Amino acid sequence: MNSKDVALLMGVNVSTIKRWTDANKLPCYQTPGGHRKFTLGHINQFLKNNKNKIQKVNLIELNGLADKELIHHIEHAEFTKIIPIFFKAAIEANQAKISTIITGLYLKGVGLDSIYDQLVFPVMRFIGDLWEARKLTIPEEHLASEVVRKAIYDLGESLTTDLPDDAPLAICFSVTGDDHELPLIMTKQILELNEIRVFNMGRSVPVKSIVDLLERLGPRYLIISANYHSNQEMIINEINELQHIISNQRIKLIVGGNASSIFKTILGKKVIIINNMHELKLKFIK
Question: What is the pLDDT of residue 165?
Answer without folding.
Answer: 87
